Structure formats: C-alpha cells, structure tokens
Amino acid sequence: MNQRNPSVIPAGLPSGGAPSSQAKALLFSMKRIRAVEETIASRYNEQKMRCPTHLSIGQEGIAAGVGLALNRDDFMMSTHRAHAHYLAKGGNLPAMIAEIYGKVTGCCRGKGGSMHLVDEEAGFMGSTAIVGNTIPVAVGLGLSIKLRNTNQVSCVFFGDGATEEGVFYESVSFAALKKLPVLFICENNFYSVYSPLRVRQPEGRKIHQLAGSLGLPASHGDGNDAVRVYDMARRAVDGIRRGAGPQFLEFTTYRWREHCGPNFDNDIGYRTEDEYLAWKKRDPIVMLQESLLGDGRATREELDGMAATAQAEVDGAFAFAGQSPFPDPSEAYTGVFK
Ligand SMILES: Cc1ncc(C[n+]2csc(CCOP(=O)(O)OP(=O)(O)O)c2C)c(N)n1
Question: What is the mean pLDDT of the chain?
C-alpha cells in the first residue's frame, strides 16, 4: 500500500475466515464506538459538552482490534483522540459521557473532559492533549511490569504526528534496549491537524520501517480491516508475553471528521471531498458486515439488533450524564497538583 498518498486506498473486503464470535465481537465494538461518537457529534451543539472533542469516526477498526487482543489487566495509554481506545479497553461508557459533560460521575470526576480519560479499573492509565506525551509513560508502565514480573502488556496508541516528536525515539529505543513488554500502536491517518504526511516527512519514509530501525519488530497493516488488526495485535501480544520484548504496529486509516469537533471540513482546502469519499467506501464497519453477511456468518436481523443494543446503551449513558450533578466547588483543589 502507498503510505505517502492517502488517495491510494487498499482494495477489497477485509480478510475473511475469522471465527464468527471474534468477528462479531469486533463488529459490535466498532458499532458501539461509532454510535457513541455519532451521538456526541449530533448533540455537541447543545452546549452541554464544553470540552474539545476529537472524534475517531472511520478509525474504529484499530481500537476494536487491539482492544480485543488485550486483557483487562493489561495497561493502555492513549491520545487526545481517546474515546475509541477507552471503550475498546473496557472503560465505563456512562462514566466517559459524564466526564465529557463535566459531571462528578465522570471517570475523572468531571475534571478531565474528553482528552483526559483515566480508568485504572479498566487498565486505562490515561490520555493527554500533549502529542507524544503518553509514549514514555507507557514505557514506564512496561518497566514496572518487568520489575513486578506480572506478564501484563503495556499498550500505547499515538498518531503519525507523534512519531515526529523526539520523545518517541527516546521511548522506543529505551523499550527496545530493556526488552520491555510494550506494544506501540501508530494510527497513521495521514494528517496532523491540517498538515498531510507528505509535507512533514521525507518522500519514501515508512513509519514502521523507521521504528524497526530502532531495534524492535515493526510491521504495517490496513487499519480499516478490524480482523486483520486483531490478528496482528494478538500475535504481537503473544510474543510480548513470551518475553520477546516490545513490538511496533503501524495501521493506516482515515479520520472522517474535522481534527477537533463534530463537523466535516473537507471544504476548507487541506484535503479533498474525493479523498474522504474514497476512504468512506472502506468504512471498517460496513466492510466487516459485508464479510459476515457474505458467507452467512451473520444475518441482517442480528446486525440490526447489535446496532439497536449499542444505541440503547449510548442513550442510557447520555441520560445518566445529563442527570448527574456537577462536582461540588469544594473539589476544585482535590486530585490536582498544587
Ligand atoms: C507537543 C504538542 N505539539 C503540538 C500540539 C498540537 N496538536 C494537537 S493534536 C495535533 C496533531 C497530532 O497528529 P497525530 O499525532 O497524527 O494524531 P491525530 O490527531 O491525527 O489523531 C497537534 C499537532 C500538541 N497538542 N502537543
């Protein structure tokens, strides 16, 4: 696949043959994430979600595939675009929406908002707005796993933009040197805000090859093929648990909406409507649905049932958030650095 030009889209349906229970788990996970983020987008103008939100609609295959490959007690670190990762790791959906509403029932008691989700019970150790910032923290978690000898894995998500930060190289090098149990996941959606990859990195560079040169196994896959993502992540996690050291996986994908916010922005000039439409044809949810329907592993009624279940759960989470109280002003100085 051409990684430099997002208009060159991988062809075909997702890799078939996955057992239907796995494929259906991946599909439900993606549908649930999509339902959450479509609802955030449609209700954003109500002015109840007063924090910036970065949606990953179109990119769900990566979170779903990696999330399914991890155990609950594994660690995960994320980015400003965190909702899908949090949910795929088993985060609490009502607590996530309450957090975005700034309510005391939120996973950070309403102090973090969309970009600062933490849920230690789910092994979701945090997300921040500082690009690249969570990569060394995930490596530190990997070191703690090694020292405690617990056989967990520390997984960290980051975008193509984060691989341009110095801390990325320091972190990956240290993890490779110390053979730490870290799974690096690069979600390459070809853009850092409005800047395409081709104006940021030299022609011909491949992110996974660059990472591989730092001394760890590194490969690349189609992030819109959730089954393939799961297979690659599962193999990487197995190797890490066997003590083989860190691994790096790069997945290509495409963000459908604006960098930050609920809208589409293909009209402002940094990318084209045609490019977006070409990627939309490779919707990770539709591709997996077609694969499941095509060989009889699922029926249309089953798929409709999944969508209805996911939407009911999302509606319940929004109702919970709406009804929850704001934190008491006396909490303003608790749980923060002073
Ligand atoms: C250290 C730092 N530099 C710049 C920014 C501004 N910024 C916020 S998101 C972003 C784009 C990051 O792109 P990428 O890592 O590819 O993730 P994506 O948004 O595509 O998911 C930038 C440059 C920041 N938050 N932190």
Answer: 95
